[in-house]
């Protein structure tokens, strides 16, 4: 069985997009799905396959009942959210090509504009794997990506001007779309460079907008596609990918954190395609944060490594290989970890989709507003009084518990395989090298070098906002260079967050582990 051109997208539907929409996520999902089916000329009763996301709040059972689907013979949920968006199409394409279904619908419905941000919910912040990052104030996706961005800037000689060029290319696309939120709001270099920080080195314009809205698409087999209302867009190749030892948004613990999921997905994607990256005219890149664009362009082979920073030089939105999508448009389709390539050789089929309207959103704070007060109430820490918000503390799992027990005694120890002597982090039940389940916790010198760092700014959880801006480090241990730990830079053991000015920090600086009264590892500069 092959997926190559065996299925096609035959309908697309979306709701209005705005900072606030009155309808529920379920109602928005229903509207988008019905619009997509109408676009395709297919009756809802013919739908027998669904695909969505683990982060999708609308249950497929409720959607099927509300819209009036027939018997469902296939349904799946893709891990994550935006970064996995294309995988829903891939899942449905595989199911239809295998004969498990005939008409599939993929959808995404969100109320992220008017609803709370996920990072404000401490019940989500605390469990594994967040125990290794969240207590140190690495709270939001912007903070996690900023850590990689800082390293990218340092290692490849990129500057904030390169990130600005990405933001400008995206904004230029919006300025050409009358339905886009940013249609009449040009972006200038001065606006970008004077914008308030979100998480240094990322500013306001390095982050995507959040909206309420939904969209959906319809996938059918090749033969059925010929009889649908619209010209089909064939799914030529599809791939998902997670690199070895990947760890979600914080891809800090593999050998090369700057080679993310795009690299793993690209190898499989191009292997099954009849063309190469040099043949592609239009690429839609997961651009929730500007650094993801150069990283993805390199990963998918649109340019050599280290060259992604140069692609948007001058902010040209129409570069043949790298035309950036108007990333304020379709919230649910920003992901290209799994990648779909219907564009090449089918320009006449894709042209009709270029008129899709973009979301309408309210103004964000003006670029001259350097700081925005944190007005979001934080959800309470688990087992803590609701009236007294506190700093997050780790909620260890069975594998990680010894790390925190030793830390409470002022010792920095790392889990090591008892058979092959390979250290590993984060802790896990067995060794990924020799598969032994025997391990021991070996003491380290507590010395290391700063691999990267970020400086978060509000909005944050209240107790973190009170200390902002503060420094969060990613430290590479001297004893085990492949082991990297997230922690805070402080002036002395037990000092508060923000006790070291950010301008005193540099990548490569030597640091020493110390421990506060709460048992959390902290770091001090060896040469303050």
From TrEMBL:
One Pfam entry name: Thiolase_C_1
Feature: compositional bias, Basic and acidic residues: 316-326
Annotated TM spans: none
Regions of compositional bias (Basic residues) in chain numbering: 327-373
Region listing for Disordered, in residue ranges: 308-395
Domain ChsH2 rubredoxin-like zinc ribbon: 404-438
ChsH2 C-terminal OB-fold domain residues: 441-515
Thiolase C-terminal domain boundaries: 255-316
Protein name: Acetyl-CoA acetyltransferase/uncharacterized OB-fold protein
Organism: Streptomyces achromogenes
């Amino acid at each position: 069985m092959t997926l190559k051109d065996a299925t096609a997208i035959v309908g697309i539907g979306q709701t209005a997009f705005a900072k606030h929409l009155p309808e529920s996520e379920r109602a928005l999902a229903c509207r988008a799905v019905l619009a997509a089916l109408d676009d395709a000329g297919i009756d809802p009763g013919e739908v027998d396959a669904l695909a969505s996301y683990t982060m999708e709040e609308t249950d497929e059972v409720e959607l099927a009942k509300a819209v009036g689907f027939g018997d469902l013979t296939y349904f799946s949920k893709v891990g994550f959210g935006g970064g996995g968006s294309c995988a829903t199409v891939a899942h449905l394409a595989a199911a239809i090509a295998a004969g498990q279904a005939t008409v599939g619908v993929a959808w995404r419905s969100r109320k992220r504009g008017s609803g709370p941000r996920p990072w404000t919910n401490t019940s989500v912040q605390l469990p594994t794997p967040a125990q290794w990052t969240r207590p140190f104030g690495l709270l939001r996706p912007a903070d996690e990506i900023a850590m990689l961005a800082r390293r990218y800037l340092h290692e490849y000689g990129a500057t904030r001007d390169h990130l600005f060029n990405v933001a400008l290319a995206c904004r230029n696309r919006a300025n050409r779309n009358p339905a886009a939120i940013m249609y009449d709001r040009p972006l200038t270099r001065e606006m970008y460079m004077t914008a308030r920080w979100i998480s240094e080195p990322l500013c306001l314009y390095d982050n995507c907008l959040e909206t309420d809205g939904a969209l959906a698409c319809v996938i059918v087999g090749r033969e059925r596609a010929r009889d649908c209302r619209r010209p089909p867009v064939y799914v030529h190749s599809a791939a998902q990918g997670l690199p070895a030892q990947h760890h979600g948004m914080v891809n800090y613990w593999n050998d090369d954190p700057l080679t993310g999921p795009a690299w793993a997905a690209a190898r499989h994607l191009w292997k099954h395609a009849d063309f190469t990256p040099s043949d592609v005219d239009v690429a839609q890149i997961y651009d929730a944060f500007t650094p993801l664009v150069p990283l993805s362009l390199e990963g998918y082979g649109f340019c050599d490594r280290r060259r992604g920073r140069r692609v948007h030089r001058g902010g040209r939105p129409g570069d043949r290989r790298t035309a950036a999508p108007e990333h304020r448009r379709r919230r649910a389709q920003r992901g290209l970890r799994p990648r779909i390539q219907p564009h090449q050789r089918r320009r006449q089929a894709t042209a009709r989709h270029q008129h899709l309207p973009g979301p309408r959103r309210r103004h964000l704070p003006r670029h001259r507003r350097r700081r925005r007060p944190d007005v979001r109430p934080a959800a309470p820490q688990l087992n803590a009084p609701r009236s007294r918000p506190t700093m997050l503390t780790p909620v260890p799992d069975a594998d990680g518990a010894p790390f925190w027990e030793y830390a409470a005694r002022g010792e920095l120890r790392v889990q090591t395989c008892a058979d092959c002597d390979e250290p590993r982090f984060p802790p896990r039940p067995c060794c990924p090298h020799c598969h032994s389940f025997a391990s021991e916790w070996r003491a380290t010198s507590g010395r290391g070098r700063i691999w990267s760092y970020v400086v978060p700014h509000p909005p944050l959880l209240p107790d973190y906002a009170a200390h902002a801006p503060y420094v969060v480090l990613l430290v590479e241990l001297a004893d085990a260079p492949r082991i990297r730990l997230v922690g805070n830079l402080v002036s002395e053991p037990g000092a508060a967050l923000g006790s070291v000015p950010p301008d005193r920090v540099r990548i490569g600086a030597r640091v020493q582990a110390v421990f506060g009264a709460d048992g959390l590892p902290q770091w001090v500069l060896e040469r303050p």
